[in-house]
Amino acid sequence: MSETLLRVRGVEKSFGGVVANRDISLNVADGEIVGLIGPNGSGKTTLFSSIVGYHPVDAGSIVFGNKEITRLRVPQIARLGLHRTFQQTRIFTGMSCVQNMQISAPLVQGKGPVSLFAPFPVEATEKLEYLLAFVGLYEKRFLRGGELSFGQQKLLEFAMAMMSGPRLLLLDEPTAGVNPTLIDYIVNRLRTANDEFGITLLVIEHNMHVIMTLAQRIYCLAHGHMLAEGSPQDIQDNPQVVDAYLGAT
Q: Which of 135, 178, 182, 219 is placed for a possible disulfide with 155 were both Cys, Cβ 3.0 to 4.6 Å?
């Protein structure tokens, strides 16, 4: 068995009187691809935001590797190798793909982020070019992010996240809003990143075909609660999941 890379225990988060997450627990093993599904408003994105430090939880514990990260902030958690992408991409639309990748480079020799106005390290340039080629954007590397299709923007954001060499990537609906012809390619790139780069993935996804073929295990949230966990087949056969989510699609 692989070691547990992410351990969430009893996490709770409310916004005013609205409970977004109640007593949520889950594990992600090193090297796994784990899915997170549930109807809109079930608390999936809130859980992601809690894990990566965007807002403090009200209760519970989050451990990444062997380190308690419950009260750490986003930059501290990112430096440990835990990153996320967003349903609505957060690329710099006025910058080229290359510039987006440069600004995503990790700290260099403790001197702070790489500056776009200083010579960019050769090894980092080689890495960004390799990653742009990996996601199929090398030929478009000098285009501004805003000139890319939405699916290509998703791929650029994925490459930007990989630039920092993450151990675990949290992907928020990587195929949402993407042209169907590009979905299979995105899924292939995610699977290859897991297989060849060893990047562990926790994926929110509404496309049932995608998540059932991509994930090895799946968690299902409903109304802020953990409803079920198991293999893709277990989830498909679970009547509570069918009633709460699959049956509603």
A: 135
